[in-house]
Amino acid sequence: MRRMWFSVVSCALLWLGCVRSHLLSQPEVDTHIQLQEQLISQHNDSAYVQRVMRLAKSAEMRSYMQPELDACDDFFGYSCGMWPKINPANAAQPRETNYQQLLANGYQHKQQRLLEQPADADSDDVAVLKLKQFYASCLRFRQTPEALYRQQLLEIAAEFGRMPALALPGQQWPADGFDWLATVAHIKRKYGLDIILLLQQAPDPHNKTQSRLYVGQPPRFVVEPNRAAVVQRIAIQLEQHLGVEAALARRTAQEITDLEMLLAKGMSTRPIGPLALPRSTVELTNAYAPTLNLTHYVELALQRPLQPEEMLYEHVVTYQAHLLVVLAQTPPHVLANYIFHKLLDRFYYDRSAPVVGQCLANVRELFPELLNNMAYRQYAAPATLSDIDAVWQQIKLSFHNVLESSSTDWLSVATRSHLLDQLNATRLLINGHAQVNFTERYKQLELKPQDYLFNLRAVLAHSTQFATPTSSPNVPTYDPEENQVLLPVSLLQPNFLWSRFYPRALRYGSLGTIIAEQLAHSLDRRAGWDAATLAEFGKRKACFRHQYERLRFAGEYLPATELQDDNIADNTAVQLAYLGYKNYLANLASSALITEYLPQMSHSPQQLFFISYAQLWCNDANEQFRDKQSLLAAGTPNALRVQGALANLDAFASAFGCANETPMNPEQKCHMYAKNLN
Ligand SMILES: *[C@@H]1O[C@H](CO)[C@@H](O)[C@H](O)[C@H]1NC(C)=O
Ligand SMILES: *[C@@H]1O[C@H](CO)[C@@H](O)[C@H](O)[C@H]1NC(C)=O
Ligand SMILES: *[C@@H]1O[C@H](CO)[C@@H](O)[C@H](O)[C@H]1NC(C)=O
Ligand SMILES: *[C@@H]1O[C@H](CO)[C@@H](O)[C@H](O)[C@H]1NC(C)=O
Ligand SMILES: *[C@@H]1O[C@H](CO)[C@@H](O)[C@H](O)[C@H]1NC(C)=O
What we know:
4-stranded mixed beta sheet, protease, 7% strand, Neutral endopeptidase, domain 2, alpha+beta, globular, single chain, 3-stranded mixed beta sheet, 678 residues, disordered N terminus, metal-binding, binds 2-acetamido-2-deoxy-beta-D-glucopyranose, Collagenase (Catalytic Domain)
């Protein structure tokens, strides 16, 4: 897994599971400047627009900076020192604020605007019309009378039997007749929800052209630390949505929460695919007999028998072992209440939460590709795409030159030539799903104009093809299988990371380093490298390890780790982007150099490059979260990523005139692929 752009790594791993909660907790980072810019940039007098846009960008950049700090001492503080005052992290959510949230918020606003454009049968794709219809019905959900809403929820529960907490007073819930495995299998079949167990189709880890079924642990829950609050929330849901009597609701909520905690203890954040265990049908039947017959579960969920020779994968074997222990100590009525609660939870709507946020989150979870595609069609103007492609080509060229230069003489001839070929074949793809026929995909989906719960049921029922929750990463990634760098559509938004009005320094410092980082990750797989090259690689890696373990964050040293790929990619990325920018400058007519400065900033173009790089990583994380972050080694903290990568770069020291032996210009510098960029 590559380092995730957003800080919540577990979130990225379980992307689908968490999009919703993540969105609802989207912090209110200040998008004011960007919104202003969007209005202004629609103006048509380009000299005027350019002037205003540059002033705005300069104001934004300066607002985060703390210029009284010494850039050679603490460049992150120099570039981002005021960020926490402008965008403070909270004790609760948001526990971190960062620049990527600005981008995400801007993107969310744009998606909202797209959804709110009136449906137009002439110009909208049929699938888009359905999406807008769904969204509109969601916005009106409060208009559903309470009684009808409750009746619909009870109908959904009744599709799968009886929920103990809903038994009428004096009535006995028949524990004997309850088959939990069949119940979760039927729910999976009907609505695609993975409760207690997961069933999913995904590529074979060893042959990606082949699709396999994975059975096992569902995505790990994001465990909320405040359990009392969770109990309270569930109790209110049971009472308000289902009419469960208060004391029973409270007791049931406590049992549900306890069970969830217990299950979570056995869960891991491992992604589907690698490390899964191949299983024959017979093995699936017997592995956890007599308690848990996974073959039975799969057959019920698929509604077809498995062939004796069919091979499946078991996802997180240790979870299934843990599940046996949990099942043995859980009374049937608790298990049943838990399962029905998880089912209905997907259908509850919160009358007190903001409507738009809830509906937008729903749409993003249920139609992620279609929504990205709408944004893609809106923002992927040829000029934008060619701007991005120009940066890409420049960075690829830089890497090519680096790999051919004497600074990479440590690569053997064979390995070097292999890397050059691989680099040449690497492609850039903006993840807009341009190839998907959405009309075809949503052909069978029938919606009603007003009835949100009906529509939600229809959409969930429609999308239970067990297909891989299509990975449309909302973060830049490198895909080794296809040898391509994937950029999310959100990066196409004008006036964030790139703008035709800004100096190119900013484009290379931000967008350029992001692209270069993923390109650098294409060298993470070192299978096929010869032994001598690997030994040299190891020496150079050791330099990074020593360097990073001497960095201190909030007074603590970073934990020593062999996992240096991310740090190495950071270093490579800023070097490649800088080389690309240098090359751009070299070809710039001297009369045009003036455009590489910003008003009200005395910084040189090179300095602007480095500030825009550092500001990409501006963040504020509250202390509690911060400690956890470094203890869990969820990657190098942002401040040290910036310090680590720039301290190895002579070009940085000369741009800011840093004396030898200052923190940003240490004597010993580590290099993997490039050096002597001056
Ligand atoms: C530019 O804007 C002015 C007024 O806002 C308008 O009259 C003019 O037609 C516009 N020109 C173009 C090329 O859009
Ligand atoms: C991968 O699977 C396909 C069929 O799905 C098969 O044709 C191909 O030979 C397999 N490749 C390898 C390397 O096993
Ligand atoms: C497991 O389930 C399969 C499919 O339903 C069934 O054929 C088999 O008899 C079951 N095995 C056991 C031991 O229950
Ligand atoms: C890169 O690949 C293209 C074909 O995709 C080929 O024509 C070109 O010669 C290659 N360039 C180098 C430097 O290998
Ligand atoms: C997409 O699918 C629809 C419905 O199946 C079909 O009519 C249409 O021709 C397809 N569009 C393209 C571009 O293939």
